[in-house]
């Protein structure tokens, strides 16, 4: 998924990234891999923001990250992994700390219904949820 996420972010940068960028992980599950897709997306966005020649229209002040799974999922392990994710995405000693603009939330619910407000999500990832679909939404 990493190359696909990175390519999607590059495409969005070429189209002009919004000041508030929304990323969601459908069926994030729990455990050590719960934050893997989101970490890749954060890396891709910040790589392009801090890269050698970011596009003039590419400005992203806030990155909203929404983790979704069924309400019965134990989101505890994902939430306890956030300090390590923050440490990973903070460049210590370089004067660059792009974590303050990253906001992580949990959105429990089924993706058969609406989960997010209109025009708030720019990248939605799903590794293992689409095979559960019994109908096209």
Automatic annotation (TrEMBL):
The keyword Transferase applies. Keywords: Methyltransferase, Transferase. InterPro entries: MeTrfase_7, SAM-dependent_MTases_sf. GO terms for biological process: methylation. One of its GO terms (molecular function) is methyltransferase activity. It comes from the Eukaryota. This is Jasmonate O-methyltransferase, putative.
